[in-house]
Specification:
The chain is α/β, with parallel strands linked by helices. Helices cover about 40% and strands about 20% of the residues. Strands 1, 2, 3, 4, 5, 6, 7, 8, 9 and 10 form a ten-stranded mixed beta sheet that branches. Helix 1 links the parallel strand 1 and strand 2. Helix 8 runs antiparallel to helix 10. The longest helix is centred in the C-terminal third of the chain and has 21 residues. About 5% of the residues have low confidence.
Length: about 325
C-alpha cells in the first residue's frame, strides 16, 4: 500500500542544515509518509550526512546539478503518495505539520492544495507570514484571491509549508525549470488557477530567511525578467479569470518596478531603457515617472534621458 504523503526535500550544499530538516520530518506525529531527498549534485558533505540515516521511510535520489525546480520535479515523479509535501533543506517543520495538513484535507475536501502559516526567522527577528483575509491566527479557510495577497506582499504560501495532490502537480506541468527566481510563485499561481487552496493561520513550520548564506536570495535582474516575461505572456494571462485581472496586472507592475530598482542599483542605465521600451505598456504611471526622474539625475547620461523623456511623453498623453 502506498503512503498517504510523499515529502520532497531538494538538496544542494546544505550540510549545516539538512539533518535539521530531515529530523523534523522523521519526528512527525503522523508516520504514514515516505521521505525523498533529491541530492541535486551537492559538492559538500550533504550526501554523507543523509546516508547516516537508516529509517526505511527515507530514500535519496542523486542527480547532476540542475536547480531546485528540477530537483523538486524529480522527487514528485518518483513519489508514491497521494499528496506531495514540500520542505526546503534549510527549513524545518513543527512535529504536527502533517497532522495539521491531514485535518485541512478532511475539513476542505473541495481543495487540492493545503498550506499553513510559517514562522519566518531572520538573523535579528522572527515573525509569522502575513495572512490576508483571515480574522485571527487561529482560523482556516479557502484563499479567495491569491493575486491580492501577492500585491500586498503577503506571501502566504511557502515551499516549506505546502502540500499538493500529486495528480494536480502533474496536471499543472510541475515546476518551471527555466525560471531561476520566482519559480515557486509561478507554481502557486498556476495551482490557484486550477484548484482551491485551503490555508490555516496556525504556524507549523520555520523558514530561515537569509541565514547561513541561503542561495535563494542571490539572483540577477535578468532572472527576474524571465519571470516577468512568463507572467505577461498571452498563454499565462488568458488563464487569469476576469475577477482577478486587476490584481494580476498590479502584481506585474510591482514586479517591473522591482526590476527597474535592481538595474538602477547596478547602474545599468541602458538596461533600464531597454526594459522600458519592452514593457512600458505593462508599467504603472508611477514606475514610468520614476524612470524619468532616474534618467534626469545629473550624474546619468543626457542622451538616454532625452530618449526616455520622448517615450514617456508619448505614452502618458
Amino acid at each position: 500500500m502506498s503512503n498517504f504523503f510523499s515529502v520532497i526535500i531538494p538538496l544542494y550544499n546544505k550540510e549545516k542544515q539538512i539533518q535539521r530538516a530531515i529530523n523534523s520530518v522523521l519526528n512527525q506525529t503522523i508516520c504514514d509518509f515516505q521521505l525523498i531527498v533529491v541530492n541535486d549534485g551537492s559538492s559538500d558533505n550533504s550526501e554523507q550526512l543523509v546516508n547516516q540515516y537508516s529509517d526505511p521511510r527515507l530514500t535519496m535520489i542523486k542527480q547532476k546539478n540542475a536547480g531546485v525546480s528540477a530537483a523538486r520535479n524529480t522527487g514528485i515523479l518518483n513519489a508514491e503518495g497521494k499528496y506531495i509535501a514540500l520542505l526546503d533543506a534549510d527549513d524545518e517543520w513543527m512535529s504536527d505539520f502533517l497532522e495539521k495538513i491531514s485535518l485541512l484535507i478532511n475539513a476542505f475536501p473541495q481543495a487540492r492544495v493545503y498550506s499553513t502559516a510559517i514562522l519566518v526567522k531572520t538573523e535579528n527577528r522572527e515573525f509569522p507570514t502575513r495572512m490576508m483575509g483571515f480574522i485571527n491566527h487561529h482560523s482556516q479557510g479557502i484563499i479567495k484571491n491569491l493575486f491580492a495577497c501577492l500585491v500586498r506582499n503577503q506571501y502566504m504560501l511557502s515551499s516549506s509549508s505546502i502540500c499538493i495532490e500529486r495528480e494536480l502537480f502533474i496536471q499543472s506541468g510541475m515546476f518551471d525549470t527555466n525560471l531561476v527566481t520566482g519559480e515557486d510563485i509561478d507554481m502557486w499561481i498556476r495551482l490557484f488557477l486550477l484548484s482551491k487552496i485551503a490555508f490555516s493561520t496556525s504556524v507549523h513550520g520555520i523558514y530561515y530567511k537569509e541565514i547561513n548564506n541561503s542561495g535563494t536570495n542571490h539572483y540577477l535582474p535578468e532572472d527576474v525578467e524571465k519571470e516577468i516575461i512568463k507572467l505577461i505572456s498571452a498563454d499565462f494571462s488568458k488563464m487569469v479569470p476576469a475577477q482577478f485581472q486587476s490584481d494580476y496586472i498590479r502584481f506585474i507592475q510591482i514586479k517591473l518596478n522591482r526590476l527597474i530598482r535592481h538595474y538602477a542599483a547596478l547602474g545599468k542605465k541602458i538596461k533600464i531603457l531597454q526594459v522600458y521600451q519592452t514593457y512600458s505598456s505593462n508599467m504603472s504611471l508611477k514606475t514610468k515617472l520614476n524612470i524619468l526622474l532616474l534618467f534626469l539625475l545629473p550624474n546619468l547620461f543626457i542622451k538616454p534621458a532625452k530618449q526616455v523623456y520622448r517615450l514617456l511623453k508619448n505614452s502618458i498623453k
